[in-house]
Amino acid sequence: MEMKKISLELGNRAPEEVTELVFDNCLCVNGEIEGLKDTFKELEFLSMANVELSSLAQLPSLNKLRKWELSDNIISGGLEVLAEKCPNLTYLNLSGNKIKYLSTVEALQNLKNLKSLDLFNCEITNLGL
Hints:
Layout: H1 3-10, E1 20-22, E2 45-47, E3 67-69, H2 81-85, E4 91-93, H3 102-106, E5 116-118
Parallel strand pairs: 1-2, 2-3, 3-4, 4-5
């Protein structure tokens, strides 16, 4: 994700004041989160739909994040980091990602506040369980 886009979204606000960010359709660099820092302490809503995100490894701590739109990316694993970095997530949209295995989704069981998980159009929904 380009730093320029983050600067545009911020406007004149300091990162500590931002509660909502939308980066839909902004392509990530190397499939990773870049430019999003721990300074976004008040962030509650984050939308990163269709940004070609494949990894959450560079995810900063976003303790107040409650709702995260991650639809139509290429994420296939690495979800265990969410419990540590985003412990208060209540809504997570992973629809249209490359999630194939139940073990990948089981990593989300440590998100104690999670109430809604969207896996529509992920490969795991075609397992025929």
